[in-house]
Design goal:
Elements lengths: L2 H6 L7 H40 L9 E4 L4 E2 L2 E2 L1 H15 L6 E4 L10 H11 L7 E4 L5 H14 L4 E5 L5 H10 L3 E4 L11 H21 L12
Parallel strand pairs: 1-4, 1-6, 4-5, 6-7
Antiparallel strand pairs: 2-3
Helix pairs in contact: 2-7
Protein name: YdcF family protein
Keywords: Membrane, Transmembrane, Transmembrane helix
Organism: Rhodococcus zopfii
Length: about 230
């Protein structure tokens, strides 16, 4: 056979067995990717449902302390979000849920007051005795605040807490508090900007779903600039 004839001879196709192995690997790779995506969607959807379910819980059982999660304050004046939480704490205190109220939260650079101090002053203006209020002036996010409260309560021999925050924040605060060693349940505020509109409710559920998934994966701080309540 001539050299030209050998060069023009077509290359034989791959063996059927090799093609079958390659196609099988590709199919399994696609299945794995689809499976991971479906699992991720299921986790996010399941978490969103739990955020919504726990937001509806309003447990006024007696506790060692009523814990008010901090929010923004302006020169000692609580923001509307924070005020709604504090007003709920007053109602719980007046109904005998606990004789101790804990406010928590540090301050941002340039602030004159901590969130905890602003919260304590507001509660006193509403008639809660100063000696019934413990101001934990630590924490720049939910996780740090909850851990600071847990340390303070354990030092005082207190172990159970009813947590007051926005409804959509309830599951994350409860999860963190229990992880920190507290026997915790929730009685969120039903007033304030967090519950005013359907849009604010959906935004709260979406925000808290993402923040809680992040916490469950990393066990680190789950508050980002877009999750901070004002």
């Amino acid at each position: 056979m001539s050299t030209a004839a050998r060069r023009s001879r077509p290359t034989p196709p791959p063996a059927p067995e090799r093609r079958g192995i390659g196609a099988g690997i590709a199919r399994w790779a696609r299945r794995i990717v689809v499976g991971v995506l479906l699992a991720a969607i299921a986790v996010v959807a399941g978490t969103a449902v739990r955020v919504w379910q726990v937001a509806r819980i309003d447990d006024w059982s007696h506790a060692d302390a009523i814990v008010v999660l901090g929010a923004a304050q302006y020169s000692g004046t609580p923001s509307s979000v924070f005020q709604a939480r504090l007003d709920q704490a007053v109602r719980l205190y007046e109904n005998g849920v606990s004789d101790t109220v804990v406010t928590v939260g540090g301050k941002q650079e340039g602030d004159l007051y901590t969130e905890a101090a602003a919260g304590k002053n507001y509660l006193m203006s509403r008639g809660v005795p100063g000696d019934a209020i413990v101001a934990v002036e630590e924490g720049t996010d939910t996780l740090l605040s909850v851990e600071a409260v847990s340390r303070e309560m354990h030092e005082r021999g207190l172990s159970s807490a009813v947590l007051v925050s926005d409804p959509w924040h309830s599951l994350r605060t409860r999860t963190m508090a229990r992880d920190a060693g507290l026997d915790a349940w929730t009685a969120p505020t039903r007033t304030g900007p967090a519950v005013f509109t359907r849009e604010s409710q959906m935004h709260g559920i979406a925000r808290e779903t993402g923040a809680l998934v992040w916490y469950q994966v990393t066990h680190g701080s789950a508050d980002f600039p877009y999750t901070a309540a004002q």
